[in-house]
Amino acid sequence: MFNRLKEKWGVSWGRFALIFLTFALGGSACGYLAEIALEWLHIPSRAVRIPVYIVLVTLLWPLCVLAISIVTGQFTFFRAYIRKIIARMGGRK
Description:
This protein is 85% helix and 0% strand. By secondary structure, the chain is an all-alpha fold. It has one domain (2-89).
């Protein structure tokens, strides 16, 4: 599985490890920031918190991953990756 992704992205093992590290740290930071935002919003109802959390994570994830990719040196990869995701969501390839 990892070999296939590495070949698809056309990166070395070192860069592949940095990309995965960026995904992990970006996702964790995104979840943490979404939790902080939920506390700040004071939403007591669990039925409302869950959809708001999903929206927050969806909006924060690209920003968190891009910010961390600057630190890990993978900004160009993630900029292109996020552009591709946005294009696919818009129906373009």
